[in-house]
User: Fold this.
Amino acid sequence: IKSSRDFHPEDTIIKTPHSVIGGQHFTLMAGPDSIESPAHVEAMGKAVKAAGATVLRGGAFKPRTSPYSFQGNGEAGLKAHRAAADALEMDMVTEILDTRDVDLVDSYTDIFQVGTRNMQNFALLKALGKKQKPVVLKRGMSATIDDLLNAAEYIAAGGNDQIILMERGIRTYDNKYTRNTLDVSAIPVLQSLTHYPIVADASHAAGVSKFVTPLALAAVAAGAQGLMTEIHDDPAHAFVDGAQALTPDEFKLLADKIRQIREAI
Ligand code: PEP
Assistant:
């Protein structure tokens, strides 16, 4: 089993043009939920970079719960995202939904993102296994830890061992006050089982901006090697998921607190 610590005892360290992910390193990935416009993604990138982020996130292909919700700006979004990442000297991470888009997304991004809904899209995982490019694999919202590790194995089996596992909240019996339940315990458990970097997304777990910071800090205290966080300068008018977006100022405060926790642990 390639993802197992028995197979590879040392932490896997992944190097991208502007980041080192895994081991003792801590990587901040942040940006808007979706790419709204070239100027907006660049402004959000500037804000997160100033707070210490090295990876600019943003979706051009959005897997919305409703087919009538905004589905993303597609290739125009990829272009704007790439231009902002280049201008700011940041890495780009963006979600891929479909095997047919692998080459298109590959031509723009530094890191592929597989979302919670596609964690067990084995055709997509196999296609990404043939690429020599990092993949952020988000835990399926109803997936067990072993399901996540087996999904990672599909990528590794194809020859791509640049995998980053992301806890982003799971469905539990009480999802009235938060969108999902951040499974903090998954962070140290996964670190004991696999050598891949383990990062967390408190934005999608919380679904509500006021809970994002405490959950993100809990993930850092539990040993997460990175965080993905959504920001927006005008959350009420965000194209997608404004309710969970931190403002740039809130993100800066979070980043400062993360540094304090990292020094303490
Ligand atoms: C995202 O990060 O934009 C996203 C849709 O996340 P998830 O797959 O965790 O819902």
Remarks:
- The mean pLDDT is 98.
- Strands lie at 14-16, 19-21, 27-31, 55-57, 91-95, 111-114, 135-138, 163-167, 198-201, 226-230.
